[in-house]
Amino acid sequence: MRVAGGLAALLLGMxxxxxQPAATALTPKEIADIAQQITVRIDGANTGSGVIIERQSNxxxxxxxxHVVQLKGNYxxxxxxxxxxxxxxxxxxxxxxxxxAVFQFTSNANYRVAEKGNSDQVELxxxxxxxxxxxxxxxxxxxxxxxxxxxxxxxxGYAFVYDIGGFPGMSGGAILDEQGKLVGIxxxxxxxxxxxxxxxxxxxxxxxxxxAPFLQSVAKFTLVKTLIGHSQKVIxxxxxxxxxxxxxxxxxxxxPDGKTLASGSLDKTIKIWNIATRxxxxxxxxxxxxxxxxxxxxxxxxxxxxCGLFCFDGIKIWNLATGQxxxxxxYVSNKxxxxxxxxxxxxxxxxxxxxxxxxTIKIWNLATGQxxLTLNGHSDPVDSVAIAPDNKTLVSSSFDKTIKIWNLVTGQxxxxINHNSYVASIxxxxxxxxxxxxxxxxxxIKIWNIxxxxxxxxxNGHSNRVNSVTFSPDGTTLASGSGDKTIKIWNxxxxxxxxxxxxxxxxxxxxxxxPDGKTLASGSYDATIKIxxxxx
Length: 536
Fold this sequence. Notes:
Blueprint: H1 5-12, H2 28-38, E1 39-44, E2 48-56, E3 59-64, H3 66-69, E4 74-78, E5 84-88, E6 93-94, E7 101-106, E8 127-132, E9 141-150, E10 160-162, E11 174-176, E12 182-191, E13 198-204, H4 205-218, E14 220-227, E15 234-236, E16 243-245, E17 249-254, E18 260-265, E19 269-274, E20 279-285, E21 293-296, E22 302-306, E23 315-319, E24 325-329, E25 340-345, E26 351-356, E27 361-365, E28 371-375, E29 382-387, E30 393-398, E31 402-407, E32 413-418, E33 423-428, E34 434-439, E35 445-449, E36 455-459, E37 466-471, E38 477-482, E39 486-491, E40 497-502, E41 508-513, E42 519-524, E43 529-535
Antiparallel strand pairs: 1-2, 1-4, 2-3, 3-7, 4-5, 6-7, 8-9, 8-11, 9-10, 10-13, 11-12, 12-13, 14-43, 15-16, 17-18, 18-19, 19-20, 21-22, 22-23, 23-24, 25-26, 26-27, 27-28, 29-30, 30-31, 31-32, 33-34, 34-35, 35-36, 37-38, 38-39, 39-40, 41-42, 42-43
């Protein structure tokens, strides 16, 4: 901050004290309203309560006590509007050493997420409120009280002690402070045999926050198969003198049912694989050069391919089921050496977009092959295009070191984002709000807010260029493939590197998630495709 001369001199000789206003306590009614909006009821093999603590896109995370959901079997979580969502004990993740667990449910409804408070500030005498669903009722119970003790060496995480009464079934419910913020999870009661006095115990929120990153790393991808089918012939570059395999895998795409994988290679072919049997179904002798970009329509009927650098074959449209070529899309450019560089299909399967070396983006009707729009704005070749799940937004990147956001319907440019170098890969999150990019001249991944064009965070961890990025279907994780021969899995919310997958012997050029998010495919310069399976 700059301060004008006279004022600066004055400030240098003064001590400035800033008094922070005290947080205003909410009324009991206001706190009760919050409690009702964030607390859920759990029914099934056991009963209890839970708190909606996280949201990523349409995936909600509920925290509860492990003892509420430890029995094997099916459960139903009832949200504040009474809607039921099913889950199984196998989907529950237990926190190590404490009586906490989390599970997730998916909904397009807009549920309130608990605002996290500071449990370190909860001291003896601090006023709190506890909410939960007593056993045998669908009516929430809301009780006010105060902290009577803090346990220095808590068993199972129970450091809060309070004497306010409670009922079976309220375990897993919220402990709120006077601002209605979540400071703990209610969960245990003991009764003195001599006086019948009931003492209640809760787990501070700090305990959850300190261990939540551990749960992210619990989910592990295991290598289940290496697919070998593309050419294994070793070629030496006349330019760089480097050796590489002719069957280097440059592009991957899953079918919408997750049963089929398409791979495009430097050997000029596309191979179609059965994921269940992990066997090759057929080979498409596709192009006169390396198959650089692939896309499969959301109805599973159509495969689109292009062959990239100095390949003038046009855009090929294939019947995925039969392997028959339907048509080839070409257009006359004002540049004699124009070629397609990338392709993307809209989620509604109606529209095809492709980037070109003449600096344009073409929009096509996928069913008819008719050209709809030409987008002009880049000053150098367009190297990547992606269409957002909202079917309204197109993102493109170029050698001119910019990313452009477009209205796919009107063709209007919405904004330009300046990048430090040309972008190697782009991916759009399932909620259409977030963009991930990797750059040619660094080892980082940038996460952007599409609406504002601002960087949200930078992911660091690879030791070489990042060639490919892709979001998981629920938007919570991002996978990246790199020249360091690894795939990294990232927590999108925190930017944490939660897993590193090793197995390829050369640069990883393409990564793709299956539609259920449980399978990850990676393609490499080592001419193999590796299939990784998420182990629960």
